[in-house]
Amino acid sequence: MNKETSTDQIGLIFEQQQLFKYELRSSSAEERIKKLYKLRALIESHEDLIYAALEKDLRKSRSEAVISEVLFIYGEIAFAIRHLRKWMKPRKVGRSMTNFLAKSTITYQPKGTALIISPWNYPFQLTMSPLISAIAAGNCVILKPSEHSPFTSAVIGEILTKGFDQRELACIEGEQHVSEALLALPFDHIFFTGSPAVGKLVMQAASRNLSSVTLELGGKSPVILDETADLEMTAHKVAWGKLINAGQTCIAPDYVLLPKDKQDEFVNYYLKAVKSMFFTGDGQLDRTVYAKIINQRHASRLVSLITNAIACGAKLREGGQLADDLTLSPALLIDVRADNSIMQEEIFGPILPIITYEDQEEALALINRAEKPLALYIFSNNKSNIQYFLQQVASGGACVNDVLIHVSNPHLPFGGVNGSGLGSCHGQFGFKAFSHERAVMFQSKFSVSTLIYPPYAKKNKVFKLLKKWI
Fold this sequence. Notes:
This protein is α/β, with parallel strands linked by helices. It folds into two domains: 7-217 and 419-438, Aldehyde Dehydrogenase, Chain A, domain 1 (3-Layer(aba) Sandwich); 222-414, Aldehyde Dehydrogenase, Chain A, domain 2 (3-Layer(aba) Sandwich), CATH 3.40.309. 43% of the residues lie in helices and 16% in strands. It has a seven-stranded mixed sheet, with helices on both faces. A six-stranded mixed sheet has the order 5-4-3-6-7-15, with helices on both faces. Strands 1-2-16 form a three-stranded antiparallel sheet. The chain is globular and about 85 Å long. 43% of the residues are buried. The mean pLDDT is 95. InterPro entries: Ald_DH/histidinol_DH, Ald_DH_C, Ald_DH_CS_CYS, Ald_DH_CS_GLU, Ald_DH_N, Aldehyde_DH_dom, Aldehyde_DH_NAD(P). GO terms for molecular function: aldehyde dehydrogenase (NAD+) activity. It comes from Sphingobacterium multivorum. Keywords: NAD, Oxidoreductase. Residues 20-439 form the Aldehyde dehydrogenase domain.
């Protein structure tokens, strides 16, 4: 692992990038694509180190790391390479009556020097994904990966050091005070992925320099089932979405809402699905496919959530045991009330509360008590019910009859609303996050605007004519 970067080094790198960003401003699509190919080659040559680091940080299996971390990034790179020329091309827009002889376009300028602060839960994917967008948009970048996933952070630092000049791309490691030192600098854009609480601090720091921000946060993403849902299929999908990475996923299903008469059947299917995916034949939790909790502090928090939920009247149907190696067995809570303590914060772990409802209005009221979620999951075969929840619940994204998978489509924006995030990323949406959309107008030799110059005494007829045109 690399040593912590000093404050002096941070200042030097930032100043170098502030100068170098002007050289990148006019970089061509071909130059940026070449860098994306280089990044892909560096990742390929470091794959074994990446998988080993993810195993050390999170005990993430190689298969899960391939699916949720590395292949995702290869897809992002390929998509950007395929579409970048089109994204960079100035976009012609229409004319108004007051400038009908002019030509108007929207162009995309690099914002300049960007800071990317990434989290520990998907430490490779959630660092590289915004980096790809920043490179595609022509920016200089300082990466600050999480100190809680130090092995992956070190590999990312090695990749960038081998392939890029720090005047363009740099990786800075360190504890919280390093992040604070970075946030004090006047970056042109800050891209942060993490908790809403820290997101507020990032936004506060950005406001001092009027830096634009993209905040990818989290929240309590609900799963809503109605009477028409296929319970066996739903339970299997929810179990996978909840327990991949031991529930440490920002868009993981946080809790399940279902009709009261469906609870027992769903519980049986859910437990069956959990056993089939994450347990061995002799009934032991399979640590080769089930990740650990990131650290003791987070593990203790999750255990407290279970304890407090039970104290508030919930029943622990299964799991919830914490082992010395920070493995928390998949926990299922039933008879959870809306005012239970576990419903007051994002769980971010392998604990699934189940809440029953009498009608759609009751379910909707419970969802809308919390901040707008990052994701909404609806399981139903009734189009009217699906539209009801899509229209009545504000969320960053939504997925019908599946979980998580919407994040894999680069044609879709990924982002939250208010408490679950600000701005979007992935594909062209990520490119735009790191770009300034600039209005450019080319005026003709004759301009209508000359008709409204002073003196105004004889312009009343012109004004009346313009009013009719407008």
